Amino acid sequence: MRDLIQDERTTGQKRKIASETCSLLLLALLIAILYQQYVLNVPFANYAAEFICFFGACCYLLIRNITSGIDLFSRKTTGVKYVLISSIISGLAICTVTGIANYARYGDNATPGIWLMTLAITFFCGTAAAFLGFSILYYLNKKRQAAIEEELNKEEDDIG
Amino acid sequence: MKKNIKMKIARIERDMKQEDLAKAVGVTRQTIGLIEAGKYNPSLKLCIAICKALGKTLDELFWEETP
């Protein structure tokens, strides 16, 4: 019996620590990428490893969540509304980060008109790109959830 | 892990769908499906919540009978 049962508390705590470490590492990678890209202005080759690691890890997290059947869009505001809100928030975040970086770089030379137009274009493109990404995720997630639902329907009242 | 037939029968007796039970205990339908299929080992907290929702005791739903 002693060999069969693991200490659940220890296992759970270890997993929690590993998960926290992963989150911290991803955050550190993101900060490193943004710092090198916008503050140090170094070429992409200098931070390519961090970039690949960060986006690779994000893709892995998304794929694993979807294939495991975890519903990524299980909130009350599901559907196109949720995708749209997430896209606008992402667009705003992209616009803010690139806006600050561009201001630091070209702030002295740009006129307010050009400046505002650049921000508007950045926001529009960022939102559109995020919308595309979230739509793909939403579609894949929905497809997987439908497959699970079908499987559960088959087994639901089948005793034996 | 063996299938939890007792839990499935108790749910059907109460005329509940997996979705209804899932809502009653605050988990996803998939979790209930996995418990019934014997593919997920629920925590004691979840077992108690399921028992309360189905009006059964822990013994009645989760105790393994000796062969």
What attributes does this structure have?
heterodimer; A: 160 residues; mainly alpha; 2 domains; 4 helices; flat; B: 67 residues; 434 Repressor (Amino-terminal Domain); 5 helices; globular
Describe this structure in words.
- The complex is a heterodimer of chains A (160) and B (67).
- Helix content of chain A is 79%, strand content 0%.
- The relative contact order of chain A is 0.08.
- Chain A is mostly helical and 160 residues long.
- Chain B is mainly α.
- Helices cover 61% and strands 0% of the residues of chain B.
- Chains A and B meet through helix 4 of A and helix 1 and helix 3 of B.
Brief overview:
The complex is a heterodimer of chains A (160) and B (67). Chain A has four helices and no strands.
* Strand content range of chain A: under 5%
Number of helices of chain B: 5
Q: What is the count of β-strands of chain B? A: 0
Strand content of chain B: under 5%
Largest sheet of chain A: none
Per DSSP, the total helix count of chain A is 4
State the share of residues found in helices of chain A, binned by percent.
over 70%
Number of domains of chain B: 1
Q: What is the terminal separation of chain A in angstroms?
A: 28 Å
List the helices and strands and how they pair.
The complex is a heterodimer of chains A (160) and B (67).
Chain A: H1 8-39, H2 44-67, H3 80-106, H4 112-155
Chain B: H1 5-13, H2 18-25, H3 29-36, H4 44-54, H5 58-62
Helix pairs in contact in B: 2-3
